[in-house]
Structures are given as structure tokens and as C-alpha cells.
From TrEMBL:
Name assigned to this protein: WD-40 repeat protein
Pfam annotation, one family: Pentapeptide
Keyword terms of this UniProt record: Repeat, WD repeat
InterPro entries xrefs: 5peptide_repeat, PQQ_b-propeller_rpt, WD40_repeat_CS, WD40_rpt
Cellular-component GO terms for this entry: transferase complex
Originating organism: Paramecium sonneborni
Start-end of each WD repeat: 400-441, 442-483, 484-525, 526-567, 568-609, 610-651, 652-693, 694-730, 736-777, 778-819, 820-861, 862-898, 904-945, 946-987
Length: 1107
């Protein structure tokens, strides 16, 4: 044969593994042009020999198996032949016997035998003869007529059944044979596969998923998991995946179609594995734009979301997919995909960010996390058994609690081993902040300790107190070394010079003392401030002392001379805190005027001003590298500022009350804070700077409500906006802007089509829920609109205002048709009765009034509250009205008679919100004391208290099915609470319903753990329980059954948090063994415990010790 290009004889065959661009048949010239190794071009004769040898090898390997299989089939066929022959003989005997019985029965019949025996009819009885006559006349009785017919019908049924069963049997065997024949045709040399073209664009790679059947992905995962296959790509590359093919072959789809789908999955996984998506951290800043663009393209795509979950699951099996699975989980979190109640057992995640992830009641047991940012993750109710989490990034490191009153001051030792704290409980605590353990407690002051500091050599602690004294303590022994007396009033602040020789103190007596630490005598008394001295600080070289006072000034003093060298003016209110930079060139100050200022030490001039806190700045601290300034405020927040640009880097929310003191660790890795909430918190401030900003309101949330179908959550805020959220995932759907002042109240219509809002801009607006567009603006009030409410039939809208009036509006005409006046102060709350006969209103005049909607007249006035009535709500049966007041009480009233039924006491501050559950059995109340109470509406007794908000709770609202409670707070967040779990917990004494359900990613299996039952698995489809394989499960069940703390382990939790500042949560989660360390090797188990996690291992040790 001649070469078509060079007209030379073909002498060689190319056997290279690549796909040849030209033909494999080559002449000598083709060989030169072909461009491959000569070893890959074989003479035709040798090629033939190589092929025959290979074929012989294959036969040698495969023939014994084929022969063995053939012999097995022959044996089975022979046995079946004997069985079928035996069955045939048995069938034949049975048929003959049946017909013999029929004939015998016929002979036994008196009618037939009478004629056959030739008997004389004259001898028959009259009745017998009558029957014979009727037969002759063809009118036999029915029983005689049906006699033979019944036998025939029964035999016909048996015949048809036999035929059907035989047909089914042969059809089934035929299909199985065809399957085998189809599988044999899967040989690669008999069927040409599509040419694989690698895709580089990630969005194009994901687009391929659209045509892939999810059931095949599920089947692949289940097979490789069961068979413990660790190489997915190798598994998919095998030509004979019998189990995989057999499960998808049917009458509509043959093997070739299934093969194409599997090949497409294989190609897709190849693209993923070779892509940077499987090599790099796509959550990093460098991939921000790509990540955002990708999310825009794939968000809401069910097939792609399913595939991303599949990638996450693959990390449990094949380490090749760990990075792409990690990036896939990051995308799922960023797209706000609902991941609650999922099974993430044994997943391996690395080099990514899961900031703000919602893993409520997920099973993460056996998971391995490495270099993962878990800041703001919600682990409430999760299982964390035998987890290995290392090199974690999280902004909050621990919460230290021992003080019984406010923490006023904290200070790190120079060697970074000790953290000291002073409190209003008169004590000083020394902490090992790495472990979170209290090392010792120093008691000696007779009153509150306002300030503490540690000497540079870490041997001595100094403290200043309300008892007017300064004391020195030995760090090792905890004993008091000395006491300095001199101030005539409380000592607010103390500071030791860097050489440890001098101690400065400031007091409410307006003066500053400089003390010689060795002689314990005063070196100088500095008088210049006209009001209390709140803060003193030495320059790094100890030559200058800065002091801040309530007289609004900062004074600079020459330490040696004891003279004032400068006076810094700028703050408009008292200076609460001063701090030198590490190079001594800059002073920072925080003030009652809410500002932070930077000053040049040499010139005394102001360099910068930082504004952001909404209340006074109590404490400031500069990092040792001078790049970051931290501040704590009465607004309960900690903020980090870039010293050079003046921009806020990060905000830490976690304290529920004022932050009084902050301090950087010597290595600038940790920021500690002390608060009025009695706690000390440790923060990784570097991680805080990297933290992503989440969706949420930027100011106080005034009201929340849930649509009737439960899909949407609405919230209104002091930031003038209204937002609609996906009630499952927290994804913001719509933002409604239009009001030019805070939005005080919102209400969704009964058909979920319209939202009404009332604002301090005096207007009422109606919005289209689907589009978020404003439909109409209603003007009628002259002051702030405090409350709006739709009638149940969506014909009327009511509004109340600071102008003391209530207006009723016709929804269709959008005109006002009634104006109720009677309240003598602003009307803060209104509510229609479910039967639309009555409108209730509560106001600043402490009264509740009931109005007849039809005639527009007041029906009843309810008196009893001693403070403003901020919220009212009708029960669904119209029998009861609930009210919440500034007098801190909740009251229940008979809606018909106006008589008070119950007064519910429990809240310690103003009650802003009350709300009945749809069935009327439970009342929720939210208060300025930051808590939510659930009350039994029938008895007036408290059921449970929900804690989580770090600001006052302004609004509460039940979902229509009563399973979820929404709350809005001045901490700028919206929370959803799993109320169903709480109700179940309270309704059953044995607590069986406190179990946690964990659903797998593919929802084929669920796991449950109940108080009185073993931990077990249940197949969702068959609803059959799978026996537990882990013996530890029985231990856990016993622990849960015995321990009362676990009876509410999965209840009272926030199932969804919507906030710009994510808060790490782990209430009710379970840990057993495992490791939890951040990238600094900081043990995070104490943090988990402080967040409400239950450590099963600790409990097991306690039980063993007791036994």
C-alpha cells in the first residue's frame, strides 16, 4: 500500500499514546515529518507480532476465568433443566388430577346420574322430577347453571397466570442477557469515544453539569464509599463498571447512553482537577473578582449547587479533590445555600474561608479542617465528634469568666504568659490565657478595682481601687507586697514606667501621684487638672507622662521635673483614655465625645480624628508595631483603626455591655477586652482585619415579620431601609429604599403581595413584595409613624403616630376613612383582632384602648401599666390581648371584658415586643434586657428564656406554622430561633424529642440522637433503621440520658443570624475527643465550651471517676 502523501510504500505503524494529527500508517518520509520518538514507530511485521503476543497474553489471563464461568453456567443450566422437567411433570400430574376430580364430581351429581343409570322417572319425587323438567325446558336453577362454569373460569385464571409468569421470567432473562451483550460491546476498539477537549474557563466547566443526571452522581458516591475506592478518576476510567451501569440501564436508556454520561462526568472531573480551582485558595483576595463573577453566573442553579456538594463529599474519599471541594464549600457558603441539617461527616477542608457559614445541626464528625477561617460560623446544635481542626483562623479566641461584676481593667504581662483583670467585685484575677484557666485570684481591696498593670519583669502587679489605695502584689505567690495611700478619693488609673521604677496614679481628687516603687514613697504630686483624672500613661522612654481628665484636656508632664510641658485641647467632653505609640511620637486619646484623636507629641497638635462609635470611647490601645489602634466603647463594640489612613479596619461584636478596657498582647497577635458583662474576651485582631463584611442592617433593627408562606423575612431599621431575606438561608432578596428617616414599623399583607411601612419621616408607604418597588405613599400624620397593621382581609391599613392619632386607610382607594383620637401621648402600637371587629392601641399614656372598627368609636380603655405601652397583640381566637410596657411587665387581658388575666414578670428592663404563636398557646416577649421570654399563655408561667442578642430586642414575630420565631435587635442583627424544638422539649417529660436530625447531602440517610435512644441511622427512602457500627454511640446515648445539661442541648438555639458582623456560635453542639487549634496553636476547646458546647469526653471522665 502506498502513502497518500509521498507515494512511498507504507512500512511503519505509529503506536504513540497520543491522538495522531495524521494517520498512523507511515512511510519513511512520514516518519521524519511525524515528529515522535522513533521507538514509537514500529515496522508492520513487528507490529503484527506485538499485537498477536498481546492477544495471547490476554487469552492466557482471561481464558481460565472464562472457562470457569462457562462451566458454572453449564452446571446451572443443567440444574435448571432438571428442575424445569420436574416442574413440568408435577404440573402434568396436577392438571390430570384436577380434571379427574371434575369428572368425578359430575358423576356424583344426582341430576346426571339419574339418567345415566336408566332409572325410572316415575319413581322420582315430585320436587326431583320438577328439576328435571326445568332442565328440559332450559330453565335450570342458578346453582346448577353455575356449577360447570365456575370450574372453567378458575382453570382459565390459572392458565393466564402461568402464561404471564412464564413471559415475565423469559423477558427478565432476555433483558439480563441483552445487558451482558451490551457490556461486551463496551470494548474501546469497537466503539469510538468522543474526543476530550479540556476546558479552561471555570464557568464553562460548571456549565457541563447541566446535562448530568444527579442520580448518577449519587450512585458514584455511594459505590466508591461502600467499596472504599480512593481513586475516583481511575474508577470512572474502568470499561466494566457493572454495578454503575446496571443501576441505570432500563428500557429507555441503553449502556452506550449511560457510558456517555459517565464519560462526561469523568471529563468534568479531569477539568476540575487540572484547574487552579483545585490548587489555589479561591476565597483569597486575589480571586475576589473571579469568585464574584462566578457566583453571579451559578447562583440559584440547582444542578451546579448539587455538583458542588458532590465535590465536598468527594473529599471524604479521594484526597485529589480536597482543594476543589474546599473551594466548592466556600462558594456554597457565599451563595447562602441552605446547609442546615446536612451530613458533612469525614469531609476534608483546607485553605479556604467559611466566614458566616450556617452549619446548624450539621454532623461534622470526623471532619478534618486545615487553614480554614471559621469566623462567624454557626455551629449551634452540630455534632463535632473526633474532629481534627488545625491552623484555624477565627477572630474570637476565648471568653474568660470568673468575675461576678464588671471587668474594669485588663493587662498583659511583658512575657505574654499572664493576663490580669480588675473588677467591681473587688478582686484581681490572673489568667493563663492560652488555656483559659484562672491561675489565681487576688483579694485585698475593700472596694472596686478600677485599674491594674504588670511590671516589665512580670513579677509584680499593681492595682488601683475605689478604696483610694494602690497595692502591689507578688505574681507567683499572689500575696500583697505593699500598699500606697495618698489619694483622698478613688484611684481611677495607674501605670508603671518601662523600667519598673516609677508608678503613676490618677484619681477623682483631680491629682496625679508619681511613686518610687522601691521606697514606696511619693516622688511628686502633679496638680493641673480641674476634674477627675481618668487615665495616665508613660512614654516608652519614661520621660513623659500623659494624663486625660474630665476637664476635656490632655496634659503632658516632665517626669523628672514634675512639671507640665504641654496641654492638648480638642475634645469637647471628658478624656477617658490616653496611650503612647511604641516610638513615643504619638498620643492617642478616647473621649466622652465619642471621638478618638491622635496627637503629635512634639508639637502638641492634633494629627487625626476617628469617628465611628455611637457612644463614649472608654478605652484605647495602640498595637506595638504602631499600625493599628483599638478602641472600646459604651456601644458594646470594639473597633480596629488603621493609624495611617484613619479608616476602620474591623469591628468586633460579642460583648453584651460596655467595653471598659482593651489591651494588645506583646506579640500583637491577640487583643483582650474587658466589659460590664463580667467577661473577658480574646480576639485574633489580624484575622479580624481580614474578615469579610456580611449582609445586614447598619443600624438598629426596629421590626421583623415573616410572610404567611414562611419563605420571606422582612426587617426595618434605623438605617432608613427595609430588607427582604430568604427565611431559610438569610440571603438578601430585596432592599427597599425610599424613607428618609428610620423605619419604625412594617407589616406584610395576608396574601404576601404587599408590605406596608411607617417611618419617622411621617409617611406610610406600600411596597410590592416581589419587585421591591414602592406602590404608593400615604401622607396623613404630622409626626413619626410608630406602627402600621393590615386588616386580616387586606382591605384596610391602620397606622398610629407620635401625633397621638390612629388612622384607617382604604387599601383600594388609598384614602383615609377614619381617624381615632383619644390617647394623650404618642401611640406606639396597634393591632387588629383576627375577626376584624376591633382595633387595639397602646401608647405613651400607659393605656390600652379598644376601638370598634365599623363605627370608629372607642369601646374600652384598659388601665394597669405604669409605663408606656410599646406593643400589643391579639391571640388568634380573639379572646386574649397581650401587652408589653416600659414598666418591664407583660400583661394578658380578657379582650371582651378588658379585665387583666395575668401579669408576667421576668424582664428586668423595658419590654418592646409581644407576639402570640399562631395556636395561641405561647407568648413571646422581647426586651431592652437583651432577652426573649416564651410564656405559657394559659397559665402565665415562663417556659424558656432565649439568650443570644447583645443588644435590646425590639421585635419578635412567629412564623405562620409556629416553628420559628424571628427577632430584631439594637445589636443590628436579625435572628431566627428554632421554637419548635423548644416546644417539643417542654411538651415531653422524657425529652425524647430533643433529638437532632442530620441529613446527608443527598438526603438518602438521616441520623438521629435522642435522649433515651441510641444514636442511629435511618434510610430516608425505606424508613428502616441501620444498626450503629460505632460502639461509642451507645456511650453517647448513656451520657445524654443521664446528663440534665444535654436535655436542652439542641434547643434554644439561633438557627439563622443576619448581621453585618458574624458571631461565632456553638450553642448545644457536641464534641468528643478531636483537636481544635488555631494557626498559633491556641486551643479553641475552651472557646467552644464558653459558647455552650458540651464536651462528652469530660463528662465521661467524670463518670469514670465517680464509678
Amino acid at each position: 500500500m502506498k502513502c497518500t502523501i509521498h507515494n512511498e510504500n507504507i512500512a511503519l505503524i505509529c503506536i504513540a499514546s497520543h491522538i495522531c494529527k495524521c494517520q498512523r500508517k507511515l512511510c519513511v518520509e512520514c516518519q521524519y515529518e511525524h515528529g515522535v520518538d522513533q521507538k514509537q514507530t514500529i515496522p508492520i511485521k513487528i507490529f503484527r507480532e506485538m499485537f498477536n503476543n498481546k492477544l495471547n497474553e490476554l487469552k492466557l489471563e482471561e481464558m481460565p476465568e472464562l472457562i470457569k464461568q462457562r462451566m458454572t453456567f453449564k452446571s446451572v443450566l443443567s440444574q435448571n433443566e432438571c428442575i424445569l422437567k420436574q416442574i413440568q411433570e408435577e404440573f402434568s400430574k396436577s392438571i390430570n388430577l384436577i380434571f379427574q376430580m371434575i369428572e368425578l364430581e359430575n358423576k356424583s351429581s344426582s341430576y346426571i346420574s339419574a339418567i345415566q343409570d336408566n332409572e325410572n322417572p316415575a319413581e322420582f319425587s315430585n320436587s326431583h322430577l320438577e328439576n328435571l323438567v326445568s332442565m328440559i325446558n332450559k330453565t335450570p336453577q342458578k346453582d346448577l347453571y353455575d356449577w360447570n362454569i365456575s370450574w372453567v373460569m378458575e382453570l382459565q385464571k390459572i392458565l393466564e397466570k402461568w402464561e404471564q409468569e412464564m413471559n415475565d421470567f423469559f423477558n427478565k432473562q432476555y433483558k439480563e442477557t441483552k445487558k451482558i451483550q451490551s457490556l461486551i460491546r463496551l470494548e474501546p476498539f469497537e466503539e469510538k469515544s468522543e474526543v476530550y477537549i479540556r476546558k479552561e474557563d471555570l464557568s464553562e466547566i460548571f456549565t457541563q453539569i447541566q446535562d448530568i443526571d444527579q442520580s448518577i452522581l449519587r450512585e458514584i458516591y455511594q459505590i466508591v464509599k461502600k467499596e472504599k475506592i480512593s481513586n475516583i478518576q481511575g474508577f470512572l476510567a474502568q470499561p466494566f463498571n457493572l454495578k454503575l451501569y446496571e443501576s441505570h440501564i432500563d428500557e429507555k436508556e441503553d449502556v452506550s447512553d449511560v457510558k456517555k454520561k459517565i464519560q462526561k462526568i469523568s471529563n468534568l472531573l479531569k477539568d476540575i482537577v487540572d484547574h487552579p480551582f483545585n490548587k489555589n485558595d479561591y476565597s483569597s483576595e486575589s480571586y475576589k473578582e473571579q469568585r464574584q463573577n462566578l457566583i453571579k453566573l451559578i447562583a440559584g442553579n440547582r444542578e451546579i449547587i448539587y455538583f458542588l456538594k458532590f465535590l465536598v463529599q468527594l473529599t471524604t474519599i479521594d484526597e485529589t479533590f480536597i482543594q476543589c471541594g474546599s473551594n466548592g464549600l466556600n462558594l456554597l457558603v457565599n451563595m447562602k445555600v441552605d446547609l442546615k441539617n446536612h451530613c458533612f461527616k469525614d469531609i476534608k477542608i483546607q485553605n479556604t474561608s467559611l466566614i458566616g457559614a450556617n452549619f446548624v445541626r450539621c454532623d461534622l464528625s470526623g471532619s478534618v479542617f486545615n487553614n480554614v477561617d471559621i469566623s462567624g460560623v454557626n455551629l449551634n446544635g452540630a455534632q463535632l465528634l473526633n474532629c481534627i481542626w488545625k491552623n484555624l483562623k477565627i477572630n474570637e479566641l476565648n471568653k474568660l469568666e470568673s468575675h461576678s461584676k464588671s471587668v474594669q481593667s485588663i493587662f498583659f504581662s511583658a512575657d505574654g504568659t499572664i493576663l490580669a483583670s480588675g473588677s467591681l467585685d473587688n478582686s484581681i484575677c490572673l489568667w493563663n490565657f492560652q488555656t483559659g484557666q484562672l491561675s489565681s485570684k487576688l483579694v485585698g481591696h475593700s472596694n472596686s478595682v478600677f485599674s491594674v498593670c504588670i511590671s516589665p519583669d512580670s513579677t509584680t502587679i499593681a492595682s488601683g481601687s475605689l478604696d483610694k489605695s494602690i497595692r502591689l502584689w507578688d505574681v507567683q505567690t499572689g500575696k500583697q507586697k505593699a500598699i500606697f495611700n495618698g489619694h483622698s478619693k478613688q484611684v481611677n488609673t495607674i501605670c508603671l514606667s518601662n523600667d519598673g521604677t516609677t508608678l503613676a496614679s490618677g484619681s477623682d481628687d483631680n491629682c496625679i501621684y508619681l511613686w518610687d516603687v522601691k521606697t514606696r514613697q511619693p516622688k511628686a504630686k502633679l496638680n493641673a487638672h480641674s476634674q477627675s483624672v481618668n487615665s495616665v500613661c508613660f512614654s516608652p522612654d519614661g520621660t513623659i507622662l500623659a494624663s486625660g481628665s474630665n476637664d476635656n484636656f490632655i496634659h503632658l508632664w516632665d517626669v523628672k521635673a514634675g512639671l507640665q510641658i504641654d496641654k492638648l485641647e480638642g475634645h469637647t467632653e471628658g478624656v477617658l483614655s490616653v496611650c503612647f505609640s511604641s516610638d513615643g511620637t504619638t498620643i492617642a486619646s478616647g473621649s466622652l465625645d465619642r471621638s478618638i484623636r491622635l496627637w503629635d507629641v512634639q508639637t502638641g497638635k492634633q494629627k487625626a480624628i476617628f469617628n465611628g462609635h455611637s457612644k463614649q470611647v472608654n478605652t484605647i490601645c495602640l498595637s506595638n508595631d504602631g499600625t493599628t489602634l483599638a478602641s472600646g466603647s459604651d456601644d458594646n463594640s470594639i473597633r480596629l483603626w488603621d493609624v495611617r489612613t484613619g479608616q476602620q479596619k474591623a469591628k468586633f461584636d460579642g460583648h453584651s455591655q460596655s467595653v471598659n478596657s482593651i489591651c494588645f498582647s506583646p506579640d500583637d497577635t491577640i487583643l483582650a477586652s474587658g466589659s460590664n458583662d463580667k467577661s473577658i474576651r480574646l480576639w485574633d485582631f489580624k484575622i479580624g482585619q481580614q474578615k469579610a463584611k456580611l449582609d445586614g442592617h447598619s443600624k438598629t433593627v426596629f421590626q421583623v415579620c415573616i410572610s404567611l408562606d414562611g419563605k420571606l423575612l422582612a426587617s426595618s431599621s434605623k438605617d432608613n431601609s427595609i430588607r427582604l431575606w430568604d427565611a431559610k438561608t438569610g440571603l438578601m432578596k430585596v432592599k427597599m429604599d425610599g424613607h428618609n428617616d428610620q423605619v419604625n414599623s412594617i407589616c406584610i399583607s395576608s396574601d404576601d403581595s404587599t408590605l406596608a411601612s411607617g417611618s419617622s419621616d411621617c409617611s406610610i408607604r406600600l411596597w410590592d413584595v416581589k419587585t421591591g418597588k414602592e406602590k404608593v405613599k400615604l401622607n396623613g400624620h404630622s409626626k413619626s409613624v410608630w406602627s402600621v397593621c393590615f386588616s386580616p382581609d387586606f382591605t384596610t391599613l391602620a397606622s398610629s403616630s407620635g401625633d397621638k392619632s390612629i388612622c384607617l386607610w382604604n387599601i383600594k382607594t388609598r384614602k383615609k376613612f377614619f381617624r381615632f383620637e383619644g390617647h394623650t401621648d404618642p401611640v406606639y402600637s396597634i393591632c387588629f383582632s383576627p375577626d376584624f371587629s376591633t382595633l387595639a392601641s397602646g401608647g405613651g399614656d400607659c393605656s390600652i384602648r379598644l376601638w370598634d372598627v365599623k363605627i370608629g368609636q372607642q369601646k374600652v380603655k384598659l388601665n394597669g401599666h405604669t409605663g408606656a405601652v410599646n406593643s400589643i397583640f391579639f391571640s388568634q381566637d380573639c379572646s386574649t390581648l397581650a401587652s408589653g410596657s416600659s414598666d418591664c411587665s407583660v400583661r394578658l387581658w380578657d379582650a371582651k371584658t378588658g379585665i387583666q388575666k395575668f401579669k408576667l414578670n421576668g424582664h428586668t428592663d423595658i419590654v418592646f415586643s409581644v407576639c402570640f404563636s399562631p395556636d395561641g398557646t405561647t407568648l413571646a416577649s422581647g426586651s431592652l434586657d437583651k432577652s426573649i421570654y416564651l410564656w405559657d399563655a394559659q397559665t402565665g408561667k415562663q417556659k424558656v428564656k432565649l439568650d443570644g442578642h447583645i443588644g435590646g430586642v425590639n421585635s419578635t414575630f412567629f412564623s405562620n406554622d409556629g416553628t420559628t420565631l424571628a427577632s430584631g435587635s439594637s445589636d443590628l442583627s436579625v435572628r431566627l430561633w428554632d421554637v419548635q424544638a423548644v416546644q417539643q422539649k417542654l411538651s415531653q417529660v422524657d425529652f425524647q424529642s430533643c433529638g437532632v436530625n442530620f441529613f446527608s447531602l443527598y438526603e438518602t440517610t438521616s441520623a438521629s440522637c435522642s435522649i433515651n435512644d441510641n444514636i442511629c441511622l435511618k434510610d430516608v427512602d425505606s424508613e428502616k433503621y441501620i444498626e450503629p457500627k460505632n460502639s461509642n454511640q451507645n456511650i453517647f446515648s448513656a451520657l445524654i440520658q443521664k446528663n440534665s445539661c444535654l436535655k436542652s442541648v439542641s434547643t434554644n438555639i439561633t438557627s439563622l443570624l443576619i448581621s453585618q458582623q458574624g458571631i461565632f456560635q456553638a450553642q448545644g453542639s457536641l464534641i468528643f475527643k478531636g483537636e481544635f487549634f488555631n494557626y498559633q496553636n491556641f486551643d479553641l476547646r475552651p472557646l467552644l465550651k464558653a459558647k455552650g458546647t458540651f464536651c462528652l469526653e469530660n463528662y465521661l471522665k467524670q463518670q469514670q471517676q465517680q464509678n
